[in-house]
């Protein structure tokens, strides 16, 4: 793993934030899982336009992985999630503080 890859602290914060959003926000009449929210945020952040037809003729987005993100990209993803949460009235628990490099990576 390179020094520029996302940190374990960022990953823990990501999953904590996604879980809280999944508990508090209904999206177009549906409750989404933390994994669904991750896919939604990553697709939005990366302006995801690459997709294929699934085996059942549904649309499947490709390339939605956070494991290959840099610290900077993960910081931007976390900032996007926090902005969304703020706009939708989600207040995060302080059990998962921001990593020390959060502000720098989010720029």
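-> sequence recovered:
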């Amino acid at each position: 793993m390179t020094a520029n890859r996302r940190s374990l602290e960022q990953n823990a914060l990501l999953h904590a934030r996604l879980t809280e959003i999944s508990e508090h926000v209904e999206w177009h009449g549906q409750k989404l899982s933390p994994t669904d929210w991750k896919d939604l945020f990553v697709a939005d952040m990366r302006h995801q336009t690459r997709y294929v037809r699934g085996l059942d003729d549904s649309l499947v987005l490709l390339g939605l992985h956070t494991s290959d993100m840099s610290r900077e990209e993960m910081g931007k993803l976390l900032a996007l999630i926090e902005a969304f949460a703020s706009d939708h009235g989600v207040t995060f628990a302080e059990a998962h503080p921001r990593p020390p490099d959060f502000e720098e990576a989010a720029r």
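The longest strand covers residues 51-53.
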